[in-house]
Amino acid sequence: MPNKIPNRQAICETLMEHAKFDRDIVALCSDSRGSASMTPFFEAFPEQSVEVGIAEQDLVGIAAGLASCGKKPYAFSPASFLSTRSYEQCKVDVAYSDTNVKLIGISGGVSYGALGMSHHSAQDIAAMAAIPNMRVYLPSDRHQTKKLMEALLQDQKGAYIRVGRNPVEDIYSEDNCPFALDRATVLREGTDVLLVACGEMVRPALDAAELLAGEGISCTVLDMYCVKPLDTETLLKYASSAKLIVTVEEHAPTGGLGSMVAQQIGEHCPRFVKNLSLPDAPVITGTSREVFDYYGLTADGIAKAIRKMLK
Amino acid sequence: MDNRELTIHSWDLRRDILDIVMAGGGGHIGGDMSVLAPLLLLYKKHLRVTPETVDDPNRDRFVLSKGHSMEAYYAVLCDCGFLDLADVKARFNKLGSPYIGHPHNVLPGIEMNSGSLGHGLPVCVGMALAGKMDKRDYRVYTIMGDGELAEGSVWEAAMAVAKFGLDNLCAVIDRNRLQISGSTEDVMPEDPLDRRWAAFGWNVLSVDGTSIDALDTAFETAKTVKGRPTMIISNSIKGYGSPVMENKAGWHHKVPTAEEYEQIKTDFLRRKEAARHAQ
Fold first, then answer.
1. Which of A220, B68, B205, B208 could form a disulfide with B214 if both were Cys (CB 3.0 to 4.6 A apart)?
2. Do A92 and B119 touch (CB under 8 A)?
């Protein structure tokens, strides 16, 4: 039975569990509570909910003001708008002023499919990661999303969390979801290829490794949900012995996971790194599934690219 | 310190600002002079915060949204015991100094960083909302520049303040009518400013921004208004205090020459004497 719970819903459920006991948790939406799956929170906790209208700058500024007074704000907006329209507020009011605002970028990457480039966030990792004192997380499935949110509820620092719109097939289960904050999760170990993925690309990367295993190609797969701070230690541990390093991300080719991994590999153990990503161009029109197929960001596409490189 | 004494004292702080700008080799001196009266009055008489209570959850909050008027803010923070004036003068703008040209919240008494415009009001909405949520009686203040009002984020927050009925928030516009390129009315017209804010649901008070008495009355009035925020339009004079600088857009950011410095000092002393003899 395929999973029907998107990561955004896991965020809402986790916050609702904690908001009952922690009255400082505040959710803010910019006319985005439906898209964010946050309607149940707003209905259950009206005193802890703030609707600012379609005003992303205000969304983040208000959240920062709340945080400076001891609140624990979670600001929800489509990743495309949150990471661009309110970029300066993320930089100045959250990161620079060091406020405990959790920025939740919903419908990230190409979730909005045929709605076009205005609604795609293929630049958010690069933008957010470039800000000093800003952490960037792209959880892979609903179970990891819950673990991540529970960990972030315990700290007092700002962070950007990007999730997609659609349900992602489970990687972990409720009983088996190993998680340590800012440490990549090793999903499988192999000797030939190191596959590093984040967000919705972890599942196809893992499936590609399974396909390749049947052909005698063994892969390590890292779930690098913590894009910043990147888990360099785990990365280098596996990179030093791999014949090939491949990154997979739902992001433009510049400034994302691939760039960060390549920077570390280049500095510490130089070798070939292939970055599988969206293009440096508006993506082709289609559903997100069709877009992934077109650019080879699927299990088959990833396996095909690896076979070609190993030839 | 009563209002008359505060007015006289304000001329000493203008001298401090002048010296800070000279020491640092830069500063937004024109806006420093126009914003000083409401800023000083707030800290001396209205804001319930001291160097000992900067972490008290019940303290009043202030955000200098026109963050470039930092030299005036330094002068006031020093005068109120948050910072040391000699240290500020010695290190302002210097390599590795905490005293930069905009508010930086590593310093005691500064709540939030600013510098890019249009940030203060949204942040203050959050602070005021938190106060309402927690049923605390603190008040939240911000001062914006008039040129700053062209930023769209100001008007996003203007709507939100009214929506949430934040009567614990009082904002000030330093209405000196000049910005770096010239007259605000040429760059991006703002009049009728009072009607614009009133249309957004604010209680609007338009006062003489060089008068401590008039500003004091406005701040007191704002505390009595229920259900909506108050906007004080502080009609001020850029470069206030010396004909060398007054109403000249070129003094938005400028370091006086040695000759100008002497003249400005003399003008401040003359105005201080006039204030001392005023009834």
1. B208
2. yes
Q: Which amino acid is at A183?
A: R
State how far the Cα of B224 lies from the Cα of A149, in Å rounded to an integer: 42
Across residues B172-184, what is the average pLDDT? 95
Instruction: Specify which residues B234 forms β-bridges with.
Output: B174, B207
Q: How many CB pairs under 8 A join A and B?
A: 101
* Contact assignment for A70 to B130 by CB distance below 8 Å: yes
Q: What is the pLDDT of residues A96-142, one digit of tens each?
A: 999 999 999 999 999 999 999 999 999 999 999 999 999 999 999 99
Positive/negative CA dihedral, B88, B91, B93, B95:
negative
* CA–CA distance, A199 with A225 (Å, rounded to integer): 6
Distance from CA of B142 to the nearest CA of A (A): 12
DSSP state of B253: S
* Nearest Cα residue in chain A from B130: A66
3-state secondary structure of B189: coil
Q: What is the rounded CA–CA span in Å between residue B53 and residue A77?
A: 35
- B260 CB-near residues (< 8 Å, 6+ apart): B244
Determine, for residues A71 and B130 on separate chains, whether the beta-carbon distance falls below 8 Å.
Answer: yes
Handedness of CA B77, B78, B82, B88 (dihedral sign): positive
| Other CB atoms within 10 A of residue A282 CB | 12
ipTM score assigned to the predicted complex: 0.97
Instruction: Mark out chain B residues that contact chain A at CB-CB < 8 A.
Output: 57, 61, 105, 111-116, 118-119, 121-131, 133-134, 152-153, 156-157, 159-160
Instruction: Quickly state the pLDDT bin for A2 (edges 50, 70, 90).
Output: confident
CB A160 within 8 A of CB A135: yes
B-chain residue closest to A46, CA distance? B133
